[in-house]
Amino acid sequence: MDPSFIHLSTQFKLRLEQALEVSLKLFEIDGFLQISSLELTTIILLYPNNKPIRSQTSEPCIHIDEDLLTTKFELLVKRIVSRTKNNKSIFARKTVVARIDKKTSLQFLVEHHLQSALPGKYRYGLFEKGELVAVAIFSGGRRMMDREDDYRSFELIRFCNKAGFNVIGGLSKLIKAFCKDFSPGDIMTFTDRDWSQHSSLEKIGFVVKEIIAPINFWVADTKRHVYRNKEELNALVKQYPHGLPKENMGSIKMILYLK
Fold it and tell me: Looking at the record's lineage, which domain of life comes first (predicted)?
């Protein structure tokens, strides 16, 4: 295993120990590294760039690739901390919901969301004493051929809390505000199976529609390029000959039916 990856993973483990105030174990298994502890409810699996396939385990896991560990180190720490030891919990009823502009939402997502920032069409935020602590980004409405003419399906494209915060009931409040404005027939979203193999969205009424297959990436210079077929892969290999293949765990498609 590449010594630089082991060093990076060791630093990550030490940073998590500092942030979580727990003792963690780091060890190699089947070509990747595992961080675990009796005090954590989930296992953290770290994959070097030359390990494209995910571990197939029935235990709750967080799957993190080397390229993300390199580019999103501190954000990964903050997200794991927010899942296990929130620095600050806020009740949504103590926040104010408001529409926010594209610039504000994109800046928030860049700072607090692991995936690429997307503007969407409709953007809502929760504010505590004037501070933006959570955002939800929605698509425009789509007509459904098997539904009545006024039925519209929207997508929840992005949702995140400010790093280190847990806004209890935050997503429900944001969705309620969106529904008041646009009366959607349903809201669809995708949850990342690299971070959770069973979605907590079911607690607020979303139902599982289907499991989406893993996405294939060609990782070059810590940038991810999605490919869908052999032709696209060949083009990426030609353009970035020193890259490596990678895939995630896929996602869960979920729908909140409102009509």
Answer: Bacteria
